Structure of Ammonium transporter:
Amino acid sequence: MASPTRPGPYMPRPPAVPEWLNTGDNGWQLAAATFVGLQSMPGLVVLYGSIVKKKWAVNSAFMALYAYASTLIVWVLVGFRMAFGDRLLPFWGKAGAALTEGFLVARASVPATAHYGKDGALESPRTEPFYPEASMVLFQFELAAITLVLLAGSLLGRMNIKAWMAFTPLWLLFSYTVGAFSLWGGGFLYQWGVIDYSGGYVIHLSSGVAGFTAAYWVGPRLKSDRERFSPNNILLMIAGGGLLWLGWAGFNGGAPYAPNVTATVAVLNTNVSAATSLLTWTCLDVIFFGKPSVIGAVQGMMTGLVCITPGAGLVHTWSAMLMGMFAGSVPWFTMMILHKKSTFLMKVDDTLAVFHTHAVAGILGGVLTGLLATPELCALDCPIPNMRGVFYGSGIGQLGKQLGGALFVTVWNLIVTSAILLCIGLFIPLRMSDDQLMIGDDAAHGEEAYALWGDGEKFDVTRPETTRTGGAGGAGREDTMEQRLTNMGARVSRVASHGLLQSIQTITSVDEKK
């Protein structure tokens, strides 16, 4: 006689797999969330740490790291339900925690996304993916976190880290959740029919506008840093950019909340647009400056990824290629030509040009989506019946909605970001002092990215008289400031001697050939 089946993970329908759960959908959503997480950690951490001067490598990477961690805590405490919970206002959801077992293991639901026609009849039910709420919380957290990490790119090289620590949770609560609820969570822009497939407005336009606004209030870097801010490691910069590109498969592939046809089209279109934009930007660099720029190529890749995001799963692949061409040329023009001719744009020190690569590319993508979105693909993903782009019969109205949505996100971020920073500035200086800016990481964190000392920075005389360094057997020894300076001088001398020796060997070799 067979023994009765015991509960376990290999039962036909174990308790951990309720009837509504699609394990494939859940697996893909967790994978997509991980892909997006890798864009921030380590993607943008590596990118930021390598694209700046050596003396700012640690500070830049840490700004991204801190934003990622702080976003998660605020998100599960109140943020998620403000963005995807029950409606409180036309642009905001009711705050609440996402911490209890009863909430997180229940089927995911976005309650405010039900759409009703003018006669009051239900036209589209609320969004209810076939996986637990915990998967939704995780995926949307990754999108929220990368928004703040992108915003940080405007402020690298001078923002007081303590001010940044206060800014990130406030901006998440009062700015990001508003855009997310309005466009994704069932708010007024969602119900009106503004198309933002995966964050062209919610993530990229908001981070670009908020970053530019914050850069205005924080103030510029030192003049010497603005004039010469070359990357400390271009190869690592490319590696960080590569993680960002590949991670976008989760960014746009996870937006339909299922591994369906829309997700497949979105991932393909994402790669096509990125490649086309990178090539377009590189060609423009060669035409106008005589040589291709690696930094420019990474920027072109970024604008292509941003531009396709509002419509990745809603347009033909030839449209994605067209969007990539626009993404590689319009932001190139605003950054390389328009920016240098505008006194105001030159005054605002947007360190990594986030305004151009994210705000300009985000609006561009939203407008092009309003023109190129196909009715067949919209029918698979959009909540409102008969949505389509202008070129497929929607009339000029859809373009007006796209511009209206962009205007709301822009104005809201401009006002809220300014208010938050002005309030923080009453208690904490927004910008580091000039003496700290001359030193860099050592002044901000007491740490340096590389052992070599150079690049024009000064030694931080405000550090304690002695510092503990590792000794034999794990024991520490105390080095005086004088000893540290002597050691640094020795390292620089060794490098200089090595370079001089190489030069002598080269000259000798040439003479022998002659």
